[in-house]
Amino acid sequence: MEVPASFAYERATSVDHAIGLLDRLGGSARLVAGGHSLLPMLKLRRADFAYLIDINDLAEELGYIAVEPGRIRIGALARHRELLESAALAETFPIFTDAEQMIADPVVRERGTLGGSLCQADPAEDLSAVCTTLGASCVIQSRKGRRLVAMEDFHRGPYETVVGGAEMLIEVRFPVRPNGSSAYEKVERRAGDWAVASAGAAVWLDGVVVADARVGLAAVGPNTMGPPEISRALRGRLPSEELYAQAGEIASASCAPVTDRRGSADYKRHLVRELTARVLRRAVARARSGRIARSARAAASDDPAARNGGPPTATEGPGE
User: Fold this and answer.
1) 272, 199 in Cβ contact below 8 A?
2) What is the pTM of this model?
3) Which of 305, 297, 157 is nearest to 224 (CA)?
4) Neighbours of 200 (CB within 10 A)
5) Sign of CA dihedral 219, 221, 223, 227
6) CA-CA distance, 79 to 104, in Å (whole number)?
7) CA-closest candidate to residue 94, choices 284, 292, 241
8) Quick one: pLDDT band at residue 301, thresholds 50, 70, 90?
9) Percent of the chain with pLDDT over 90
10) How confident is the model at residue 313 (pLDDT cuts 50, 70, 90)?
């Protein structure tokens, strides 16, 4: 039986306390929240550090989902279960519901966090693909203040992020735009497993044409990726099966899968081609349905936000 190497244990009481510990202890310390990625690495001796800083007591400070005009902010300690059960996310970004339903099992979803998922930087990680698809930005805090990093720049490589040794990911921000929707699909060897390949799509409509679109891919390269060529190919076009197929071809040509025990590189490219078309098709259908529903609500409502198709204004957690 593999057992972890010995380490000292610290329990942070606030974000500032956690960052202070990281600053004092340097590269010999690691943060732990859900622990579903870190603890297996400890048991296999693939993670080596002298101090473990437990940040679970920061859930009240960092466990929020805040819905504001034009954006949604999610704290780094929001649990998978909370993301799955959020009515605001299900309405605004159904891609979250799609992805969370396929992440591991209820035990993992009860403890695992958004921040832990992103900071693990596994190339096959679902929420990294979701955040890439939605054009998210990551808020990183140090003793000097905060900095904002686009999701495309957050991962430096497999299992490596731009978060420094005395820094902490505290929040992820998602822009909200009208007349859009999203979807996510993956192929896995068994329920709850890492993806063989996965794809997410977000689409915004302007009348009957695509105003903008984004696709995020996971498990088919050293990082999750969002091919900008797909966005350029779809803008201003009428949604159609031919357009979805074209996007699938672009996605397949843009990714860089490797042959492993989950499948050959050719098989993964085939999956990317098909999954990209599927999620675009579903995202467009959801955007159209949402526009019809908003129009119906607007006709029966005096709420300006409803008439304009704006985002909900409820807050499920603390504001900034």
Assistant:
1) yes
2) 0.88
3) 157
4) 34
5) negative
6) 13
7) 284
8) low
9) 75
10) very low
- CA dihedral (237, 308, 69, 202) in degrees, to 10, reads -20
Q: Determine whether 308 is exposed, middle or buried from the number of CB atoms within 10 Å of its CB (0-12, 13-18, 19+).
A: exposed
pLDDT band at 45 (very low <50, low <70, confident <90, very high): low
- Quote the pLDDT of residue 239: 98
Residue 310, amino acid: G
Q: What is the dihedral of CA 248, 268, 184, 66, to 10 degrees?
A: -110
CB 65 within 8 A of CB 316: yes
Q: Taking 90 as the threshold, does the pLDDT of residue 203 lie above it?
A: yes
Mean pLDDT of 195-203: 97
Task: State the Cα–Cα distance between residues 319 and 232, nearest whole angstrom.
Answer: 35
- 56-71 mean pLDDT: 97
